[in-house]
Design a protein that fits this description.
243 residues; Rossmann fold; six-stranded mixed β-sheet; 30% helix; 31% strand; cell wall biogenesis/degradation; cell shape
Length: 243
């Protein structure tokens, strides 16, 4: 079985180590014997979502986001159809903000994709911190680093990516971070996210594989170093064990 990963606009949304997320997705498939192709789509390229199994939308400055948001409006219907059909997506920082209805900045209001019920307002100061999340869908806490000026607010009934144990999260007030909608994860966590959290990576991969008809489980990999790093961060910043 083959999966195709689409990296949207890496020529503009490239601030937060998103290539590390792509590499993590790719290699955890290769190590298990799956075929994988990575396609980079720059700003002038046509995106055919029917060929894609996982989409990554990364982070960039407000200037780059403004350019990308205009392009995203042209593919909004195709992107929404992909998401509603169960397409797997991970959107980081600026990409996360663009999943919602809008991102309001002093330079102007960016129209979002309206894929998830959320909106973002720019605030001050920037929210910068290591961060630890808990979510019962994952066997371990989720760790990362956040650095964002946006304050994101979720709509009623929208599931966050996790509850904040340490750090700021979406807006520094409601103790929630990110969003989960269908097979979409939006988050402010970078560093990059997936190499620090292979359990999140495998969840995304299994969702993409099952959409293609795969009925098996994922072969376990030797993640002891990743687990130790995760446990160290959780204990240092949240004072918790990883159990």
């Amino acid at each position: 079985m083959k999966l195709t990963i689409g990296h949207l606009y890496p020529d503009l949304l490239n601030l937060y180590g998103d290539r590390g997320n792509i590499q993590c997705l790719k290699m955890r498939l290769v190590w298990r014997g799956f075929d994988v192709e990575v396609r980079r789509f720059c700003i002038d390229d046509r995106v055919d979502f029917s060929d894609l199994d996982i989409v990554l939308l990364g982070g960039g400055s407000d200037r780059e986001q403004m350019i990308v948001c205009r392009k995203l409006q042209q593919i909004q219907k195709d992107f929404r159809d992909y998401v509603e059909d169960g397409g797997t997506t991970i959107a980081v920082c600026g990409g996360y903000q663009l999943l919602g209805h809008y991102y309001n900045t002093p330079e102007g209001k960016m129209e979002g994709l309206h894929l998830a019920d959320l909106y973002t307002e720019q605030g001050s100061p920037r929210l910068i911190s290591n961060i630890v999340l808990k979510n019962d869908r994952y066997p371990y806490p989720v760790v990362g680093f956040e650095n964002h000026g946006g304050r994101t607010h979720l709509g009623e009934g929208v599931e966050p990516f996790g509850k904040v144990v340490f750090g700021y999260g979406n807006n520094g007030k409601d103790h929630e971070e990110g969003v989960i909608y269908r097979n979409v994860i939006g988050t402010y966590l970078h560093g990059p996210l997936l190499p620090k959290n292979p359990h999140v990576c495998d969840d995304l991969l299994l969702r993409a594989l099952r959409r293609r008809g795969y009925e098996g489980t994922l072969q376990p990999l030797d993640d002891h170093e990743e687990r130790e790093a995760n446990a160290y961060i959780v204990k240092r910043f949240a004072g918790l064990s990883d159990s």
